[in-house]
Write a structure and sequence with these properties.
single chain, about 325 residues, mainly alpha, three-stranded mixed sheet, 11 helices, about 5% strand, globular
Length: about 325
């Protein structure tokens, strides 16, 4: 029997969160505005040459879609992924996460284009319109990797991936598509910076509702986990510098085998740095999904009574017991 639970692509019959619907509404509104008033693109999309004084386009660029296909993908993505991450983070935490990732994605892309301009001196770099929700979408995939890394995600009934691999798959597909279509500068920076900014925020700054500490220093969520296992030793050494800067006093536990913790802070195990905390995080995600599915079943009892074979599209991951490390 497979020990990994399956997360199927949910249908539109499920109740989506209010915040995800608000994001979908904002994306639709942005698309309509730029379609009806084309000149609005110059002020709402990221145009580095106009960012000063129009500094707001660093933020608004992530909420503007100019292509109907990408708009639909963004809407479906935020509706589906928010159903998983928002119950765990809470509405406030989800909104803060999206705002932080969206801003830093736009800001880092702005800096990158100016640096490229100083090298290339090509004026087109400063007046290229860059926009799209793909940065936040990439960040939500990172959030899914954090909450339920070992769960299977099934698409169109038979294509199955582990949730922890989705960020890398999305990056690979985006880069491949951008190279084919010649839209590297318009899409790849948002996806790469969105992925990194989301991991950085979740790793070091997101507040843990059950403790007074911030971040997620578990081994399952280290930066090297985004890469193949053969590269982990090299990436761990490079990423260690970042950990030293943002985790003053965080050090490797000398008694890791006995305590099961990866890190200690002031000689005390740091919550979130051991397997038990990672299991509890997955259990919170499972409980949140079960509660939401329970509400769905209650509100549609008459429909399900006529269709007894109908099952929800999402199967909440069952809590997995964690055995103490014997290493």
């Amino acid at each position: 029997m497979d020990s990994h639970q399956t997360l199927a692509a949910p249908s539109f019959s499920l109740n989506f969160t209010r915040l995800s619907k608000a994001f979908a509404g904002v994306l639709c509104l942005g698309y309509i505005v730029q379609l009806v008033i084309p000149v609005a693109r110059e002020y709402l999309t990221l145009v580095p040459g106009r960012t000063i004084p129009c500094v707001w386009n660093v933020f608004t660029a992530g909420l503007i879609e100019t292509d109907i296909f990408r708009l639909l993908l963004s809407i479906v993505g935020v509706l589906v992924l928010a159903k998983v991450v928002e119950p765990v983070w809470g509405s406030k935490g989800f909104l803060l996460f999206a705002a932080v990732v969206n801003f830093w994605t736009g800001f880092c892309t702005f800096v990158l284009l100016y640096l490229l301009y100083t090298v290339d001196r090509t004026g087109d770099l400063l007046y290229t319109e860059i926009c799209g929700f793909q940065g936040v979408f990439a960040g939500l995939l990172v959030g899914l990797k954090q909450i339920m890394p070992e769960n299977d995600v099934t698409l169109v009934g038979y294509v199955k991936f582990r949730a922890k691999h989705l960020p890398a798959i999305f990056i690979a597909l985006t880069v491949t598509g951008a190279l084919v279509l010649g839209t590297v500068l318009k899409t790849v920076p948002f996806v790469l910076f969105g992925t990194y900014a989301s991991w950085f925020y979740l790793r070091f700054f997101q507040s843990n509702p059950e403790t007074s500490l911030q971040g997620d220093p578990s081994d399952e969520f280290k930066f090297a986990a985004f890469f193949p296992g053969a590269l982990h030793p090299v990436i761990d050494r490079v990423a260690g510098l970042c950990s030293q800067v943002f985790r003053v006093g965080l050090q490797q536990a000398p008694a890791r085998a006995e305590s099961g913790s990866s890190y200690v802070l002031n000689n005390a195990p740091l919550p979130g740095s051991d397997n038990a905390e990672a299991a509890r995080r997955r259990e919170r995600g499972a409980r949140a999904l079960e509660e939401r599915l329970g509400k769905k079943a209650t509100s549609s009892g008459q429909i399900t009574s006529r269709s007894p074979d109908k099952t929800p599209d999402i199967e909440a991951p069952a809590p997995q017991a964690t055995e103490p490390s014997t290493e």
